[in-house]
Amino acid sequence: MKRILIIDDEVNVALLLAKFLTRNGFDVTTASTGTIGMEYLKNGDFNLVLCDFRLEDTDGREMLKNIKTQYPKTGVIIITGYSDIKMAVELIKMGAYDYITKPLYPDEILNTITKAIETHYALIEDKTEKNNEDKSSRENRKQAFNGEFVLGNSRASRELLRQIELVAPTNYSVIIMGESGTGKESVAKSIHLNSPRYNQPFIAMDCGSLTKELAQSEFFGHEKGSFTGALYTKIGHFEMANGGTLFLDEVGNLSYEIQAALLRTVQERKVKRIGSTKEINLDVRIIIATNENLQEGIQKGRFREDLYHRFNEFSIFIPPLRERGNDIMLLADHFLKLANHELGRNVVSFSPEVVECFMNYRWQGNVREMKNVVRRATLLTEGNEITMKALPLEISNFKMPVHEYGNHIESFEIKEVRHDLKNAALEAEYETILKVLREVNFNKTKAAEILNIDRKTLYNKMKAINIK
């Protein structure tokens, strides 16, 4: 059960808020002064503090400083009156997750608290680990700390690490491309944590879940009363990320209208909340992720070409799990350790049959799918070794088609070599096309230009040699 500490000198407000949160499954403690609140923090492990900005013996700024210094893993949300919003925004830049304005609305409170515990608490934990690391452990900064992306020894992993190290110290906007579940947000967070902005906010935003009506408010924020349903002032994601990094996942799903508004903000580096006339200067690094081909979206009129070029100062392609060779079992072992810790189990290995199955399986859901499969198998395993019976049927019964080259290219082996010129020419053409496609991250337009053929011819040749 998540533990929350409410610090508010308005006792009735604190009690009502405590009852509401208790009914929603939280363990709640209340304190009427900052001094009492710090004593409670000293004697208890709290996930989150809801702190009123104006207290009898101190204020929100001092409380935030003290909590961040002494209890860096505890998230902080500031409760404030409308007149203190400017200060609340400053507190967010100092490390508070968010603020809530009075009067308090139950849905807003619950939504803010849930997000704080699920996202910001994890990020604070990452930063704490980073700040406490010594020289011998700084290699850990080369990867994201959320357990979804683990650097391996394959050529693809080494190249990915090289690109992260190359672009991280810059202010370049980055496009991260890869299939769903490959760990794009983890790579984005790794770039952020290895950049000069590492101690500033990292704000992630899922563009795939945004409606056209909601997108503007989420990006830019709004003032209270600026439209029907605007019951409180909301800070947008751009403003929340100011000084740090804004990560936009599945940006290709945004409407054309929102793309235009986004372009203006990126170009001018200014943001204006809905219903406000005041412009706020921005210093935000933008990293976007997509599992779609944005250039095809441009050709079909779904994505703005000018916005694409604003984002595409540097691009990174994350290879699918099935193309990472021996890293597959490295990841499996990593997730096994996490599952053992989570479930209190002591499963130590995978049977040889499971290892062979994992190496041959296509992993359409990539790293995310593997994590779930290993967690499930760890739960079902009675001994100390995961066997085939603990795997889902779609994995244990999987048989890779003999001629399936397209997305499992590195496992393709020529079973029969015919020593004739026609066969040699086809094999040479296959290798050349494949090499160029990899170099340009399977961008077919660029590949056709390099190969000095038109796009249609490239498609026909790829189809003839079973490259998809």
UniProtKB/TrEMBL annotation:
In this chain the Response regulatory domain maps to 3-117
Q: Which residues form the signal peptide?
A: none
User: Where are the 4-aspartylphosphate residues found in this chain?
Assistant: 52
Record's keyword terms, sorted = Activator, ATP-binding, DNA-binding, Nucleotide-binding, Phosphoprotein, Transcription, Transcription regulation
- SMART domains given in the database record: AAA (SM00382), REC (SM00448)
One GO biological process from the UniProt record? regulation of DNA-templated transcription
Q: Which GO terms describe its molecular function?
A: ATP binding; sequence-specific DNA binding
Q: Where is the Sigma-54 factor interaction domain?
A: 150-379
Q: What is this protein called?
A: Two-component system response regulator HydG
The record lists the organism as Mucilaginibacter gotjawali
